[in-house]
Specification:
alpha+beta; two-stranded parallel sheet; disordered C terminus; single chain; 62 residues
Length: 62
């Protein structure tokens, strides 16, 4: 099964990243989002994508 190609008006949802978003990569992310918007694609980030995962992990109850 193949997914359909992304088309203008579609929304890409970012629910999790493989690594924390650092200050160093914020500009790259902004550029990528701007590029996708210019292509007519919407980007939606999940509520906690920009949170520090170590802080969340420390606050969780094991």
């Amino acid at each position: 099964m193949l997914a359909k190609h992304i088309q203008k008006g579609d929304t890409i949802g970012v629910i999790a990243q493989s690594e924390p978003i650092t200050k160093d990569c914020e500009e790259e992310i902004k550029q990528a989002v701007e590029y996708m918007k210019n292509q007519g694609v919407k980007i939606k980030f999940a509520k906690y994508v920009h949170e520090n995962p170590t802080r969340i992990w420390r606050n969780s109850k094991a």
